[in-house]
Amino acid sequence: MTYSYVISIARKPGLSDPEGTTTKKALSDLGFGGVTHVSFGRTISIDVEAESAEAAEPLIEAMCEKLLANPVMERYTIEAAS
Amino acid sequence: MTYSYVISIARKPGLSDPEGTTTKKALSDLGFGGVTHVSFGRTISIDVEAESAEAAEPLIEAMCEKLLANPVMERYTIEAAS
Question: The pTM is what?
């Protein structure tokens, strides 16, 4: 059976986010003056064939640790998608 | 008052996602053979000063159209964050 997951990845709190800082400045230059904070994250949607959700979830976790996220700088959450 | 929003941006359906295709292959090479689909998206968290939520939401919409998303290739959803 196919199980679908959405992985949300964001920088750990306290790490600088140059993309966010630059975007905040660009928004201000475009006339959007009231923006006080911008930060970026990414999402990865994955469909995986597995015998059960119990078998699929550790696989997704292992994919995050080995390839999809950078555990040094990022934190991630895994959610089952409908 | 400060209002917080999360913008979720993904490619429009039917457009190719080279990052997803490459990641699927990389996962397969790492031994994760059961992956049938991978696609990438991004999220942007924005805090904005505004008089009311009714004033803030059209601002966020305008930011998406002018800078944050590419309406030709991407679709986006805006959600108020807690």
Answer: 0.89
